[in-house]
Amino acid sequence: MKTVRLGVAGLGHVGCGLIELVARQAELRLPGKVEVVGVSARSRTRNRPVDIGGYRWFDDAATLAEDPDVDVFVELMGGSDGPAKFAVETALKAGKPVVTANKALIAMHGQALEDLAQAQDVDLMFEAAVAGGVPVVRVLRDSLTGVTIRRVTGILNGTCNFLTTEMLRTGRAYEDVLDEAQRLGYAEADPTLDVSGLDAAHKAAILASIAFTADLDFDKVSVAGVDTIEVLDLVLADRLGLRIKLITEGLLSEEGVVCRVAPMALPFDHPLARVDGSLNTVRVEGTPLGAVTLTGPGAGAGPTASAVMGDISKLFSPTARSPFGRADHHVRRVFVDAAPGERSAFFLRVKLSDKPGALASLSEALAAQNVSVDKLLQDSADESGASPVAIVTHVCSRGDMQTAADHVAALSSTIGAPQLIPIDSIG
Ligand code: HSE
Protein backbone atom coordinates (compact mmCIF):
# COMPACT_ATOMS: atom_id res chain seq x y z
CA MET A 1 0.00 0.00 0.00
CA LYS A 2 1.31 3.41 -0.95
CA THR A 3 2.29 5.89 1.79
CA VAL A 4 2.13 9.65 1.29
CA ARG A 5 4.63 11.54 3.46
CA LEU A 6 3.54 14.97 4.65
CA GLY A 7 5.44 18.07 5.71
CA VAL A 8 3.02 20.18 7.76
CA ALA A 9 3.77 23.89 8.19
CA GLY A 10 1.53 25.69 10.67
CA LEU A 11 0.32 24.06 13.89
CA GLY A 12 -2.61 26.25 14.88
CA HIS A 13 -6.18 24.89 15.20
CA VAL A 14 -6.23 23.38 11.70
CA GLY A 15 -2.67 22.01 11.80
CA CYS A 16 -3.37 20.25 15.10
CA GLY A 17 -6.71 19.04 13.71
CA LEU A 18 -4.83 17.46 10.80
CA ILE A 19 -2.30 15.77 13.13
CA GLU A 20 -5.25 14.27 15.05
CA LEU A 21 -6.84 13.01 11.84
CA VAL A 22 -3.57 11.42 10.74
CA ALA A 23 -3.37 9.68 14.13
CA ARG A 24 -6.77 8.08 13.67
CA GLN A 25 -6.57 7.40 9.94
CA ALA A 26 -7.57 3.76 10.43
CA GLU A 27 -11.12 5.07 10.94
CA LEU A 28 -10.99 7.18 7.76
CA ARG A 29 -11.36 6.12 4.13
CA LEU A 30 -8.04 7.23 2.67
CA PRO A 31 -6.80 5.25 -0.34
CA GLY A 32 -3.45 4.56 1.38
CA LYS A 33 -1.37 5.46 4.40
CA VAL A 34 -0.47 9.01 5.42
CA GLU A 35 2.57 9.81 7.52
CA VAL A 36 3.75 13.14 8.96
CA VAL A 37 7.51 13.30 8.43
CA GLY A 38 8.17 16.86 9.53
CA VAL A 39 6.48 19.89 11.09
CA SER A 40 7.15 23.59 11.33
CA ALA A 41 5.48 26.42 13.24
CA ARG A 42 6.23 29.78 14.82
CA SER A 43 6.74 28.27 18.28
CA ARG A 44 7.96 24.77 19.08
CA THR A 45 6.98 24.88 22.75
CA ARG A 46 3.48 26.40 22.63
CA ASN A 47 0.75 24.43 24.40
CA ARG A 48 -1.04 22.26 21.84
CA PRO A 49 -3.78 19.66 22.00
CA VAL A 50 -1.49 17.19 20.18
CA ASP A 51 2.00 15.94 20.99
CA ILE A 52 4.44 16.96 18.27
CA GLY A 53 7.53 15.62 20.09
CA GLY A 54 7.86 12.63 17.74
CA TYR A 55 8.09 14.62 14.51
CA ARG A 56 11.18 16.13 12.91
CA TRP A 57 11.12 19.85 13.67
CA PHE A 58 11.94 22.55 11.09
CA ASP A 59 12.45 26.17 12.14
CA ASP A 60 11.89 27.21 8.57
CA ALA A 61 8.82 26.18 6.56
CA ALA A 62 10.62 26.50 3.21
CA THR A 63 13.34 24.06 4.32
CA LEU A 64 10.58 21.60 5.24
CA ALA A 65 8.90 22.24 1.88
CA GLU A 66 11.93 21.05 -0.08
CA ASP A 67 13.02 18.25 2.24
CA PRO A 68 13.60 15.05 0.21
CA ASP A 69 11.47 12.99 2.64
CA VAL A 70 8.40 15.15 2.01
CA ASP A 71 6.01 13.99 -0.75
CA VAL A 72 3.30 16.60 -0.12
CA PHE A 73 3.73 20.03 1.48
CA VAL A 74 0.75 21.12 3.61
CA GLU A 75 0.65 24.86 4.26
CA LEU A 76 -1.53 25.89 7.22
CA MET A 77 0.36 29.01 8.26
CA GLY A 78 -1.87 31.70 6.76
CA GLY A 79 -1.06 35.15 5.42
CA SER A 80 -1.07 36.20 1.79
CA ASP A 81 2.65 36.96 1.65
CA GLY A 82 5.80 36.33 3.60
CA PRO A 83 6.82 32.85 4.82
CA ALA A 84 3.65 31.04 3.65
CA LYS A 85 3.99 32.25 0.07
CA PHE A 86 7.71 31.58 -0.01
CA ALA A 87 7.28 28.05 1.37
CA VAL A 88 4.51 27.19 -1.13
CA GLU A 89 6.62 28.49 -4.02
CA THR A 90 9.60 26.52 -2.74
CA ALA A 91 7.56 23.29 -2.62
CA LEU A 92 6.17 23.78 -6.12
CA LYS A 93 9.61 24.63 -7.51
CA ALA A 94 10.89 21.42 -5.91
CA GLY A 95 8.17 19.54 -7.82
CA LYS A 96 6.07 18.74 -4.76
CA PRO A 97 2.29 18.98 -4.65
CA VAL A 98 0.90 21.52 -2.19
CA VAL A 99 -2.27 21.43 -0.09
CA THR A 100 -3.19 24.72 1.57
CA ALA A 101 -6.03 26.25 3.57
CA ASN A 102 -4.74 29.76 2.88
CA LYS A 103 -7.54 31.79 1.26
CA ALA A 104 -5.64 35.09 1.29
CA LEU A 105 -2.65 33.51 -0.46
CA ILE A 106 -4.78 31.90 -3.18
CA ALA A 107 -6.95 35.01 -3.68
CA MET A 108 -3.96 37.33 -3.99
CA HIS A 109 -1.43 35.08 -5.75
CA GLY A 110 -3.47 32.15 -7.09
CA GLN A 111 -2.81 33.14 -10.67
CA ALA A 112 0.98 33.11 -10.34
CA LEU A 113 0.93 29.97 -8.20
CA GLU A 114 -1.26 28.24 -10.78
CA ASP A 115 1.31 29.07 -13.48
CA LEU A 116 4.09 27.68 -11.30
CA ALA A 117 2.16 24.49 -10.47
CA GLN A 118 1.32 23.93 -14.13
CA ALA A 119 4.89 24.56 -15.24
CA GLN A 120 6.06 21.97 -12.69
CA ASP A 121 3.17 19.62 -13.51
CA VAL A 122 2.20 19.26 -9.84
CA ASP A 123 -1.08 19.71 -8.01
CA LEU A 124 -1.95 22.76 -5.92
CA MET A 125 -5.07 22.08 -3.86
CA PHE A 126 -7.04 24.44 -1.64
CA GLU A 127 -10.40 22.91 -0.72
CA ALA A 128 -9.96 24.04 2.88
CA ALA A 129 -9.43 27.67 1.82
CA VAL A 130 -13.12 28.15 1.03
CA ALA A 131 -15.99 27.37 3.41
CA GLY A 132 -13.95 25.13 5.74
CA GLY A 133 -15.56 21.71 5.82
CA VAL A 134 -18.02 22.36 2.98
CA PRO A 135 -16.62 20.57 -0.09
CA VAL A 136 -17.21 23.27 -2.64
CA VAL A 137 -13.92 23.85 -4.48
CA ARG A 138 -13.74 20.40 -6.02
CA VAL A 139 -17.48 20.24 -6.55
CA LEU A 140 -17.20 23.41 -8.64
CA ARG A 141 -13.91 22.47 -10.28
CA ASP A 142 -14.63 18.81 -11.02
CA SER A 143 -18.21 17.70 -10.38
CA LEU A 144 -19.90 20.68 -12.06
CA THR A 145 -17.75 20.83 -15.21
CA GLY A 146 -20.89 19.97 -17.19
CA VAL A 147 -22.69 23.09 -16.04
CA THR A 148 -22.58 26.58 -17.56
CA ILE A 149 -22.59 28.57 -14.35
CA ARG A 150 -24.51 31.84 -14.22
CA ARG A 151 -24.10 32.83 -10.60
CA VAL A 152 -22.46 31.65 -7.40
CA THR A 153 -23.78 33.15 -4.17
CA GLY A 154 -22.78 32.29 -0.66
CA ILE A 155 -22.36 32.96 3.01
CA LEU A 156 -18.62 32.52 3.38
CA ASN A 157 -17.77 34.10 6.71
CA GLY A 158 -19.06 32.35 9.81
CA THR A 159 -18.19 35.26 12.09
CA CYS A 160 -20.33 37.74 10.12
CA ASN A 161 -23.21 35.30 9.83
CA PHE A 162 -23.01 34.62 13.56
CA LEU A 163 -23.04 38.40 14.19
CA THR A 164 -26.15 39.16 12.13
CA THR A 165 -27.96 36.06 13.42
CA GLU A 166 -27.24 36.71 17.10
CA MET A 167 -27.81 40.48 16.98
CA LEU A 168 -31.29 39.87 15.57
CA ARG A 169 -32.06 36.91 17.85
CA THR A 170 -30.94 38.52 21.10
CA GLY A 171 -30.86 42.28 20.41
CA ARG A 172 -27.26 42.31 21.66
CA ALA A 173 -24.92 44.98 20.30
CA TYR A 174 -22.36 44.30 17.58
CA GLU A 175 -19.25 44.53 19.82
CA ASP A 176 -20.71 42.16 22.38
CA VAL A 177 -21.50 39.44 19.81
CA LEU A 178 -18.13 39.90 18.09
CA ASP A 179 -16.41 39.23 21.43
CA GLU A 180 -18.34 35.98 21.66
CA ALA A 181 -17.38 34.97 18.08
CA GLN A 182 -13.74 35.50 19.04
CA ARG A 183 -14.15 33.40 22.18
CA LEU A 184 -15.79 30.62 20.16
CA GLY A 185 -12.84 30.62 17.75
CA TYR A 186 -14.74 31.54 14.54
CA ALA A 187 -13.05 34.89 14.04
CA GLU A 188 -9.64 35.37 12.45
CA ALA A 189 -6.75 36.40 14.71
CA ASP A 190 -7.44 39.90 13.39
CA PRO A 191 -11.28 40.04 13.32
CA THR A 192 -11.29 43.12 11.08
CA LEU A 193 -10.54 40.64 8.28
CA ASP A 194 -13.93 39.06 9.03
CA VAL A 195 -16.16 42.07 9.68
CA SER A 196 -14.73 44.15 6.82
CA GLY A 197 -15.80 41.43 4.37
CA LEU A 198 -12.22 40.78 3.25
CA ASP A 199 -12.08 37.14 4.38
CA ALA A 200 -15.35 36.37 2.56
CA ALA A 201 -14.09 38.28 -0.49
CA HIS A 202 -10.97 36.10 -0.71
CA LYS A 203 -13.17 33.00 -0.75
CA ALA A 204 -15.72 34.48 -3.19
CA ALA A 205 -12.99 35.45 -5.66
CA ILE A 206 -11.57 31.93 -5.62
CA LEU A 207 -14.99 30.44 -6.34
CA ALA A 208 -15.73 32.98 -9.09
CA SER A 209 -12.41 32.30 -10.75
CA ILE A 210 -13.15 28.57 -10.89
CA ALA A 211 -16.82 28.91 -11.83
CA PHE A 212 -16.22 31.28 -14.73
CA THR A 213 -12.69 30.28 -15.89
CA ALA A 214 -11.71 33.84 -15.04
CA ASP A 215 -8.20 35.07 -14.33
CA LEU A 216 -8.39 35.91 -10.65
CA ASP A 217 -8.02 39.66 -10.17
CA PHE A 218 -8.69 40.54 -6.55
CA ASP A 219 -8.39 44.29 -7.21
CA LYS A 220 -11.72 44.17 -9.06
CA VAL A 221 -13.64 42.55 -6.19
CA SER A 222 -15.84 45.01 -4.32
CA VAL A 223 -15.85 44.49 -0.59
CA ALA A 224 -18.20 45.69 2.13
CA GLY A 225 -18.67 44.15 5.55
CA VAL A 226 -21.10 44.06 8.44
CA ASP A 227 -19.31 46.69 10.50
CA THR A 228 -21.95 49.33 9.77
CA ILE A 229 -24.98 47.11 10.49
CA GLU A 230 -27.02 48.02 13.56
CA VAL A 231 -29.55 45.91 15.47
CA LEU A 232 -32.13 48.46 14.27
CA ASP A 233 -31.48 47.52 10.62
CA LEU A 234 -31.88 43.82 11.34
CA VAL A 235 -35.08 44.34 13.32
CA LEU A 236 -36.76 46.67 10.78
CA ALA A 237 -35.79 44.36 7.91
CA ASP A 238 -37.24 41.44 9.84
CA ARG A 239 -40.55 43.31 10.18
CA LEU A 240 -40.49 43.79 6.40
CA GLY A 241 -39.98 40.05 5.79
CA LEU A 242 -36.23 40.29 5.12
CA ARG A 243 -33.07 38.84 6.67
CA ILE A 244 -29.88 40.88 6.31
CA LYS A 245 -26.75 38.77 5.80
CA LEU A 246 -23.25 39.20 4.42
CA ILE A 247 -23.59 37.64 0.98
CA THR A 248 -20.88 36.85 -1.55
CA GLU A 249 -21.76 36.93 -5.18
CA GLY A 250 -20.00 36.02 -8.40
CA LEU A 251 -21.91 36.49 -11.62
CA LEU A 252 -21.22 36.44 -15.30
CA SER A 253 -22.00 39.66 -17.19
CA GLU A 254 -21.31 40.58 -20.82
CA GLU A 255 -18.29 42.60 -19.68
CA GLY A 256 -16.80 39.91 -17.48
CA VAL A 257 -17.09 38.47 -14.01
CA VAL A 258 -18.55 40.65 -11.28
CA CYS A 259 -17.52 39.54 -7.81
CA ARG A 260 -18.64 41.31 -4.66
CA VAL A 261 -19.26 40.91 -0.97
CA ALA A 262 -21.84 43.06 0.74
CA PRO A 263 -24.77 42.89 3.12
CA MET A 264 -27.89 41.80 1.25
CA ALA A 265 -31.49 41.54 2.33
CA LEU A 266 -33.06 38.15 1.62
CA PRO A 267 -36.80 37.40 1.62
CA PHE A 268 -37.61 34.83 4.33
CA ASP A 269 -38.18 32.11 1.71
CA HIS A 270 -34.81 32.71 0.01
CA PRO A 271 -32.63 29.55 0.14
CA LEU A 272 -29.85 31.42 1.97
CA ALA A 273 -32.10 33.23 4.45
CA ARG A 274 -32.29 30.41 6.99
CA VAL A 275 -28.58 29.59 7.05
CA ASP A 276 -27.88 30.92 10.53
CA GLY A 277 -25.11 31.15 13.08
CA SER A 278 -21.58 30.30 12.01
CA LEU A 279 -22.69 28.07 9.11
CA ASN A 280 -21.40 28.65 5.58
CA THR A 281 -23.30 27.97 2.38
CA VAL A 282 -22.68 28.13 -1.37
CA ARG A 283 -25.39 28.16 -4.03
CA VAL A 284 -24.47 27.50 -7.65
CA GLU A 285 -26.96 28.40 -10.37
CA GLY A 286 -26.47 27.27 -13.95
CA THR A 287 -27.64 25.39 -17.00
CA PRO A 288 -28.71 22.60 -17.32
CA LEU A 289 -28.33 22.09 -13.56
CA GLY A 290 -30.79 24.54 -12.09
CA ALA A 291 -29.37 25.26 -8.65
CA VAL A 292 -27.48 23.33 -6.02
CA THR A 293 -26.78 24.51 -2.48
CA LEU A 294 -24.10 23.15 -0.13
CA THR A 295 -24.26 24.09 3.54
CA GLY A 296 -22.11 23.20 6.55
CA PRO A 297 -19.43 24.29 9.01
CA GLY A 298 -17.23 26.92 7.41
CA ALA A 299 -14.64 27.13 10.16
CA GLY A 300 -13.14 25.20 13.04
CA ALA A 301 -10.29 22.74 13.42
CA GLY A 302 -12.12 19.49 12.64
CA PRO A 303 -14.13 20.54 9.58
CA THR A 304 -11.24 22.44 8.01
CA ALA A 305 -8.75 19.62 8.70
CA SER A 306 -11.17 17.17 7.06
CA ALA A 307 -11.08 19.31 3.90
CA VAL A 308 -7.26 19.30 3.99
CA MET A 309 -7.30 15.51 4.36
CA GLY A 310 -9.71 15.23 1.42
CA ASP A 311 -7.16 17.01 -0.78
CA ILE A 312 -4.32 14.83 0.52
CA SER A 313 -6.40 11.79 -0.28
CA LYS A 314 -6.67 12.95 -3.90
CA LEU A 315 -2.87 13.04 -4.16
CA PHE A 316 -2.52 9.26 -3.95
CA SER A 317 -3.16 9.41 -7.70
CA PRO A 318 -2.03 12.91 -8.69
CA THR A 319 -3.80 14.45 -11.63
CA ALA A 320 -1.88 17.74 -11.93
CA ARG A 321 -5.11 19.33 -13.08
CA SER A 322 -5.06 23.11 -13.28
CA PRO A 323 -5.78 24.32 -9.72
CA PHE A 324 -8.64 26.46 -11.00
CA GLY A 325 -9.80 23.75 -13.42
CA ARG A 326 -8.97 25.51 -16.70
CA ALA A 327 -7.83 24.06 -19.99
CA ASP A 328 -6.33 25.96 -22.92
CA HIS A 329 -9.48 25.74 -25.03
CA HIS A 330 -11.74 27.24 -22.33
CA VAL A 331 -13.14 30.75 -22.63
CA ARG A 332 -10.96 32.85 -20.32
CA ARG A 333 -12.80 35.73 -18.71
CA VAL A 334 -11.73 38.81 -16.79
CA PHE A 335 -12.97 40.19 -13.48
CA VAL A 336 -14.70 43.58 -13.82
CA ASP A 337 -15.62 46.15 -11.15
CA ALA A 338 -19.35 46.14 -11.90
CA ALA A 339 -21.80 45.39 -14.66
CA PRO A 340 -23.62 48.47 -15.95
CA GLY A 341 -27.41 48.30 -16.05
CA GLU A 342 -27.78 45.94 -13.09
CA ARG A 343 -31.15 46.18 -11.36
CA SER A 344 -32.34 45.23 -7.91
CA ALA A 345 -34.90 46.05 -5.23
CA PHE A 346 -33.43 47.65 -2.11
CA PHE A 347 -33.88 47.90 1.64
CA LEU A 348 -33.22 51.50 2.71
CA ARG A 349 -33.12 52.53 6.37
CA VAL A 350 -32.93 56.18 7.29
CA LYS A 351 -33.19 58.04 10.60
CA LEU A 352 -35.20 61.23 10.08
CA SER A 353 -35.58 64.19 12.39
CA ASP A 354 -39.16 64.20 13.64
CA LYS A 355 -40.41 67.36 11.88
CA PRO A 356 -42.94 68.18 9.15
CA GLY A 357 -41.78 67.50 5.60
CA ALA A 358 -38.96 65.09 6.52
CA LEU A 359 -40.72 62.11 4.98
CA ALA A 360 -41.77 64.20 1.96
CA SER A 361 -38.13 65.18 1.23
CA LEU A 362 -37.13 61.55 1.50
CA SER A 363 -39.75 60.38 -0.96
CA GLU A 364 -38.95 63.29 -3.31
CA ALA A 365 -35.27 62.27 -3.36
CA LEU A 366 -36.30 58.75 -4.31
CA ALA A 367 -38.85 59.86 -6.92
CA ALA A 368 -36.30 62.18 -8.57
CA GLN A 369 -34.25 59.07 -9.45
CA ASN A 370 -37.27 57.01 -10.51
CA VAL A 371 -37.08 54.86 -7.40
CA SER A 372 -40.53 53.66 -6.41
CA VAL A 373 -41.48 52.57 -2.87
CA ASP A 374 -43.00 49.12 -2.42
CA LYS A 375 -43.27 49.04 1.41
CA LEU A 376 -42.65 51.68 4.07
CA LEU A 377 -42.42 51.39 7.82
CA GLN A 378 -41.93 54.29 10.23
CA ASP A 379 -41.53 54.11 14.01
CA SER A 380 -41.98 56.89 16.55
CA ALA A 381 -38.94 59.02 17.24
CA ASP A 382 -36.58 57.92 20.01
CA GLU A 383 -35.59 60.19 22.89
CA SER A 384 -33.09 62.03 20.64
CA GLY A 385 -35.83 62.88 18.12
CA ALA A 386 -34.63 60.43 15.44
CA SER A 387 -37.43 58.54 13.75
CA PRO A 388 -36.40 55.29 12.00
CA VAL A 389 -37.85 54.72 8.55
CA ALA A 390 -37.37 51.50 6.58
CA ILE A 391 -38.30 51.24 2.92
CA VAL A 392 -38.44 48.36 0.48
CA THR A 393 -38.21 49.67 -3.08
CA HIS A 394 -39.44 48.16 -6.31
CA VAL A 395 -36.75 46.87 -8.64
CA CYS A 396 -34.73 49.81 -9.98
CA SER A 397 -31.33 50.59 -11.47
CA ARG A 398 -28.51 50.09 -8.96
CA GLY A 399 -26.91 53.33 -10.15
CA ASP A 400 -30.13 55.36 -9.74
CA MET A 401 -30.64 53.94 -6.27
CA GLN A 402 -27.12 54.85 -5.20
CA THR A 403 -27.64 58.42 -6.48
CA ALA A 404 -30.96 58.65 -4.61
CA ALA A 405 -29.35 57.31 -1.42
CA ASP A 406 -26.54 59.88 -1.72
CA HIS A 407 -29.17 62.64 -1.99
CA VAL A 408 -31.06 61.21 0.99
CA ALA A 409 -27.83 61.20 3.02
CA ALA A 410 -27.35 64.89 2.23
CA LEU A 411 -30.87 65.97 3.32
CA SER A 412 -30.95 68.27 6.34
CA SER A 413 -33.62 66.04 7.92
CA THR A 414 -31.45 62.88 7.68
CA ILE A 415 -29.61 61.87 10.86
CA GLY A 416 -26.47 59.74 10.51
CA ALA A 417 -25.66 57.58 7.51
CA PRO A 418 -28.54 55.78 5.77
CA GLN A 419 -28.26 52.04 5.37
CA LEU A 420 -28.70 50.83 1.76
CA ILE A 421 -28.82 47.08 1.14
CA PRO A 422 -29.81 45.30 -2.09
CA ILE A 423 -32.51 42.65 -1.84
CA ASP A 424 -31.57 39.41 -3.52
CA SER A 425 -34.15 37.78 -5.74
CA ILE A 426 -34.49 34.01 -5.60
CA GLY A 427 -32.47 32.50 -8.43
N1 HSE B 1 -12.83 33.58 10.23
C1 HSE B 1 -13.39 32.69 9.27
C2 HSE B 1 -14.92 32.73 9.45
C3 HSE B 1 -12.86 31.27 9.51
O1 HSE B 1 -15.42 33.37 10.37
O2 HSE B 1 -15.62 32.16 8.62
C4 HSE B 1 -12.65 30.45 8.29
O3 HSE B 1 -12.02 31.06 7.23
Helix-residue proportion: 25-40%
- How far the N terminus sits from the C terminus, by CA atoms, comes to 47 Å
Structure class: alpha/beta
* Assembly state of the chains shown: single chain
Number of helices: 13
CATH homologous superfamily descriptor of the largest domain: Dihydrodipicolinate Reductase, domain 2
The rounded Rg comes to: 23 Å
Tally of separate domains:
3
Might you state the CATH topology name of the largest domain? Answer: Dihydrodipicolinate Reductase, domain 2
Tell me the CATH architecture of the largest domain: 2-Layer Sandwich
Main sheet record = 8 strands, mixed
**Small molecules bound:** L-homoserine
Shape: elongated
> How many extended strands?
19
Q: Which regions have little confidence, pLDDT < 50, spanning 5+ residues?
A: none
The CATH class of the largest domain is Alpha Beta
Q: Which range does the strand content fall in?
A: 25-35%
What is the overall pLDDT average? 95
